[in-house]
Amino acid sequence: MKKRSIYDPTTQIYSSPRPPLQLPADQNTSLTDFLFRSAASHPDSVALIDAESGETMTFHQLRFHVSRMAHNLQTKLGVSKNNVVLIVAPNSIHFTVCFLAIVSIGAIATTCNPLYTVGEMSNQISDCNPKLIITVPQLVDKISDFNLPLILLNNGTSDSSSKSDKNDVFCRYSDLIGEYSEAAAAAGAEEFEFPADVKQSDTAALFYSSGTSGKSKGVVLSHGNFMATSRMVTTDQDELEEPKGVSLCFLPMYHIFGFAVSTYAQLRRGNAVVAMERFELEKMLRSIERYKVTQMFVVPPVMAGLAKAWPAISQSFDLSSLTLIFSGASPIGKDLMVDCAKNLPHVNILQGYGMTEACGVISGEDAREGNRHSGSSGILCPGVEAMIIDIETFNPLQPNQIGEIFFRGPNVMQGYFNNDEATKQTIDDEGWVHTGDIGYFDEQGQLFVVDRLKELIKCGGFQVAPAELEGLLLSHSEIVDAVVLPYPDVKAGEVPIAYVVLSDPKSLLSEANVQDFIAAQVASYKKLRRVKFVDQLPKSPTGKTLRRELIAQLRSEAEEACMQTHVEPKSS
Q1: What is the pLDDT of residue 64?
Q2: How many CB atoms lie within 10 A of CB 142?
Q3: Is the pLDDT of residue 158 over 70?
Q4: What gap in Å lies between CA 436 and CA 453, rounded to an integer?
Q5: Which CATH number applies to 456-563?
Q6: What's the angle, vertex CA 328, arms to CA 324 and CA 330, rounded to 5?
Q7: Whether pLDDT at 392 is above 90
Q8: From which domain of life does this come (predicted)?
Q9: Has residue 540 got a pLDDT over 80?
Q10: Is the C or the N end of the chain the one with fewer CB within 10 Å?
Q11: DSSP annotation of 193
Q12: In degrees to the nearest 10, what's the CA dihedral of 488, 491, 495, 497?
């Protein structure tokens, strides 16, 4: 691959060394159009596979189902351009059909975690005001009180819900798409033409941010954003002229990583996608073996599980088909990357960086470039530019200087839904997204994400990066998971403390042992003041530690301790 400039000292902008991004010149192109134009060359190839049942859907069948669903959303259910349709369901091959059908007619798809409480769902529903909800029978009782029309994704009768009569419309997915047959397709049953007035700049979806550090916000993503991401994710495969592969998706499709990166981008390239309802290590391994999976996108806990269960995995499952594991959502320590690479020497184990506001991707490692286990998040994706900005002076920084990561490109969100103030705080007048992440580029253009700006611990005038200490903790042979958080301190303002999960509950590792282990490797102000041992850390569905939950507990604990300290003695 011929390199172009990575860092321009004149503008102090970092650019991608990857080939230029190729997107359709026709602005009247939806993400559904983009997918099926690519699929026209391989209509009989398998597009989707249900991991549990083995049910398959070719690209031709996928287009048939999407077309029928889109037609009936318009004609039977009255869904029109810019209406919002909410999908509340676990992964399935039908989830993808529904999403593509919604956006193909210019409506807006929004997704929601099926595990949300009624209160959490209510916040999102109040914000985006969906016209109807697509869900599964098991969730109807939870959703019915919203009094919105429902579409059920799978069959069932009386066990579906006792509350279905509350809804204006209660129909089944199977009734909307009908039965696929070669005869029906040949007779023109799929002749519904997708609307020509859906543009790349039109809103396709609202993906709500995880809210790991605050209230969840609706991220507005256009058709063009998804198309750009699909090219960015698969550029390296195309450059290497790799054959069409099989991608395993157990990441939740209601999350941007699960849908835009792990599903849509793979389908657009012609890869088959195996849909798992949820992640379970043994089921994942069985699916890799059964369907000859060639690649999968993961989050750090999956990598940790692979490392921990080795060598038993190699003795029970054939993983020889696997060629690529790509990890995202949060950084992985170099030691864990090296351990997994040692166990799977035939697999490229890469790491990337992205966010919902970037439609899933900003950078990714390239196995052809240098040391692939360097702990970096790789080089910028094609079409993406970045700057590193000093958090105090706000001046651009050179390679190997740490600051806030700014980026811009065709994958940048349109803004936050119904939240102009948050949009202005995140995207500046020149189109730069202020990520709130701290990091740096080296001379080769490799991006290293150090921590979240808001998560830096301000200790006695110094800044402590939790990710640095977490990486050290995870390098300990008896520690399998850890998080470092700020704890209020009268003198220092904040001090770092750690929550630690031991690999063996019977371990004799003590708080003092852990503190000494860290103290031997860091400056004095970075020393851990306390260590708490826990069975597990609270996680989001994509594997991010829910820091705000733990920080709230710590603040409450600190306030309680402060109150007890200042209690007046009782008079005798």
Answers
A1: 94
A2: 17
A3: no
A4: 5
A5: 3.30.300.30
A6: 145
A7: no
A8: Eukaryota
A9: no
A10: C
A11: P
A12: -70
